[in-house]
Design brief:
The protein has one domain. The radius of gyration is 20 Å and the shape is globular. Helices cover 72% and strands 5% of the residues. The chain starts with 6 loop residues before the first helix and ends in a 6-residue tail after the last helix. It has 321 residues and is mostly helical. It has 11 helices and 2 strands; from the N terminus they run ααααααααααββα. It is a multi-pass membrane protein. Pathway: Cofactor biosynthesis; adenosylcobalamin biosynthesis. Its main location: membrane.
């Protein structure tokens, strides 16, 4: 651990952070990431103009992420002892989004099950950037399943990984960087240069977590055939996807679930033909629930692995237990 936590403390704090998220969910009045989004928006309006937009984007990323991460690390260092441990747990709670994934996606499955397409379209539009006005059940279920699988990594597993590496400041660094990628990492006239550096930084931070997530989806496929299919889809389909990290995560997850995701989606009124992800049937309402269970199961797996690692080092008499 880069900032002095033992493996036992790390495992316990990972569990505490996840439990806080599941019990409390997002803060109702003011979420820190919303405030950070407002800061990022103000920086982008100020700096995304004129020449040297790549450098300006890197500067904006540094101004948004570095001071907040350094402040979090400094406060923990100054607190020490039990207050520092509590601060680690709170930072993880603010950064993780497991319950948010459940609360935003399972109502879509419920609306589809009840045949309420207008409500399902409205709910899906809140979590994806594609057009949903004319989407049918398969389109909406596909969008929700894809969002669950990809954001399982972005909102949950990447955060857990970087917490394991560097505690609360590590989780904060990852989540802020991922938020900026979601806001600025578009390949269009406005963000192609300005958002390039933030997008590449997020790619680097996600390089290991995404592949651990993909491997977890393979391991948790419900059948041996599903595990083989998830592995084969990962190896064959991930390179075709535009994102180097979303490709492994979504292809292995779709393969594990026996679903065919990807394909056509409507953005800004234009049909975009994306590569195929996974193999099997088209998504339906029940598959959203199955995708959520895969994400929840992977969370449990990661917490279990952290506990086993801590227990093993402790039994072996390690100095970092």
């Amino acid at each position: 651990m880069l900032i002095g936590l033992t493996l036992t403390q790390t495992a316990l704090l990972l569990l505490v952070g996840v439990l806080l998220d599941l019990l409390l969910g997002e803060t109702r009045r003011f979420h820190p990431l919303v405030g950070f989004g407002n800061l990022a928006y103000a920086l982008e309006r100020r700096l995304n103009k004129g020449r040297w937009r790549f450098a300006r984007g890197l500067l904006a990323w540094s101004l948004a992420v570095a001071p907040l991460t350094a402040l979090g690390a400094w406060l923990i260092f100054q607190a020490g002892g039990a207050p520092a441990l509590a601060a680690h747990a709170l930072l993880l709670y603010f950064c993780i989004g497991l319950r948010s994934l459940r609360d935003h996606n399972l109502p879509i499955a419920q609306a589809l099950t009840q045949g309420d397409l207008p409500q399902a379209r409205l709910l899906t539009a809140r979590i994806v950037s594609r057009d949903t006005a004319q989407a049918n059940e398969a389109d909406l279920a596909k969008a929700s399943a894809e969002s669950l699988l990809e954001n399982g990594n972005d909102a949950v597993f990447g955060t857990l990984f970087w917490f394991a590496v560097a505690g609360g400041p590590g989780a904060l660094l990852f989540r802020l960087a991922n938020t900026l990628d979601a806001m600025w990492g578009y390949r269009n006239a406005r963000f192609n240069d300005f958002g390039c550096a933030p997008a590449r930084i997020d790619d680097v931070l996600n390089l290991i977590p995404a592949r651990l997530t993909a491997l977890s989806y393979v391991l948790l496929a419900p059948t041996l055939a599903g595990k083989r299919r998830a592995w084969q889809c990962w190896r064959a389909q991930a390179p075709t996807w535009s994102s180097p990290n979303a490709g492994p995560v979504m292809s292995s997850g779709a393969g594990a679930l026996g679903l065919e995701l990807g394909g056509a989606a409507v953005y800004d009124g234009e049909v975009e033909q994306r590569p195929t992800l996974g193999s099997g049937t088209a998504a339906r309402a029940g598959d959203i629930v199955r995708a959520w269970r895969l994400v929840a199961g992977t969370t449990t797996l990661w917490l279990f692995c952290a506990a086993v690692a801590a227990a093993t080092v402790h039994l072996l008499g390690g100095t970092h237990a």
